[in-house]
């Protein structure tokens, strides 16, 4: 950590230099599958894993876990915000990896403006300039919130900007609502996930570079019909699956079934692999890779 701070203090240009010399690879390898580790949660103030409210708050610990995960066979890359990707560039951990920049993190967890998820992270020009491989954005639509229209429009323009640069963009859509207590929740029913996929697939002037990042439905048996909604390639997201070994095993089984579907091309999973219930990051990552 001391060396990272020293470089940032004295040689901030080292980050751009590291990006320029990074050895790149295609988005997909010969298998046509993707295994991406996600670490863009902290920038939205989402630091918790299960009952551990500040599990992701220790940056040195997070970076160590990320470097371990990226070193495991079958892990294709990482999704993160600029601060984390800059650290990983300086650590030399991103050579021959898919690097995905997280684009909108403005909807802070628990805030009154949480659903106003503005683009406060990587811009399309940043992803292009740094030689990164893709972008990711979160699209939560609340039918009772007029602000969702602004979110839809800004998402569409971001998709356009990525398509102009021939850069893939992974769209993570949800139908969301607030509980009576004000907490934002995502509807994982088959109907809601189907509707969110249909909405996301039609955004922008071209879908040529759009991928979907989708959850497994409440009833995993519904996924086959849900994924018939679009021909866009998709990856499964992990989310916070709980804080016990039983929860972890249940999540693996849900992913295993959905990964057999023709449009599903891989996994983008973060907290459940970086902070597994038993603490064994390597084993959690290896198990997820084995599902592919």
Report what the structure shows:
By secondary structure, the chain is of the alpha/beta class. The chain has one domain: Aldolase class I (TIM Barrel, Alpha-Beta Barrel), CATH 3.20.20. It is built from eleven helices and nine strands. α2 packs across α4. The mean pLDDT is 95. This is Deoxyribose-phosphate aldolase. It holds the Pfam family Cgl0159.
Itemize the secondary structure elements and their pairings.
Blueprint: H1 2-10, H2 14-21, E1 34-39, H3 59-71, E2 77-80, H4 82-90, E3 98-102, H5 124-129, E4 134-141, H6 148-164, E5 169-178, E6 184-186, H7 190-201, E7 210-214, H8 223-226, E8 234-237, H9 245-258, E9 264-269, H10 271-274, H11 281-291
Parallel strand pairs: 1-2, 1-9, 2-3, 3-4, 4-5, 5-7, 7-8, 8-9
Antiparallel strand pairs: 5-6
Helix pairs in contact: 2-4
**Tally of domains:** 1
CATH architecture: Alpha-Beta Barrel
Order of helices and strands: HHEHEHEHEHEEHEHEHEHH
Q: From the alpha carbons, calculate the radius of gyration and give it in angstroms.
A: 18 Å
Protein name: Deoxyribose-phosphate aldolase
InterPro entries: Aldolase_TIM, Cgl0159_dom
Domain Cgl0159-like: 32-289
Pfam family, one: Cgl0159
List the keywords.
alpha/beta, 11 helices, Aldolase_TIM, Cgl0159_dom, 292 residues, TIM Barrel, single chain, Deoxyribose-phosphate aldolase, globular
């Amino acid at each position: 950590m001391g060396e990272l701070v020293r470089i940032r203090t004295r040689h901030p240009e080292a980050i751009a230099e590291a990006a320029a010399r990074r050895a790149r690879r295609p988005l997909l390898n010969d298998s046509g599958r993707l295994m991406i580790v996600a670490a863009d949660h902290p920038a939205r103030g989402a630091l918790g894993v299960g009952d551990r409210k500040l599990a992701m708050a220790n940056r040195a610990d997070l970076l160590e876990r990320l470097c371990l995960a990226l070193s495991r066979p079958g892990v294709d890359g990482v999704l993160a915000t600029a601060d984390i990707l800059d650290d990983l560039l300086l650590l030399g951990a991103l050579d021959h990896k898919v690097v995905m920049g997280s684009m909108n993190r403005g909807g802070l967890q628990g805030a009154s403006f949480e659903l106003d998820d503005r683009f406060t992270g990587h811009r399309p020009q940043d992803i292009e300039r740094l030689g990164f491989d893709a972008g990711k954005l979160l699209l939560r639509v609340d039918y009772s919130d007029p602000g969702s229209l602004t979110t839809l429009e800004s998402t569409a323009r971001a998709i356009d900007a990525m398509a102009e640069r021939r850069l893939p963009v992974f769209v993570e859509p949800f139908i969301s609502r607030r509980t009576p207590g004000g907490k934002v929740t995502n509807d994982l029913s088959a109907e809601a996930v189907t509707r969110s996929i249909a909405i996301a697939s039609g955004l922008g002037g071209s879908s040529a570079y759009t991928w979907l990042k989708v959850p497994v439905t409440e009833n995993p048996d519904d996924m086959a019909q849900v994924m018939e909604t679009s021909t866009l390639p998709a990856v499964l997201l992990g989310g916070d699956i709980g804080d016990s070994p039983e929860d972890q095993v249940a999540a693996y089984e849900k992913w295993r079934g959905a990964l057999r579907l023709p449009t599903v091309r891989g996994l983008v999973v973060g907290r459940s692999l970086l902070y597994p219930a038993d603490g064994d990051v390597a084993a959690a990552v290896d198990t997820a890779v084995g599902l592919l």
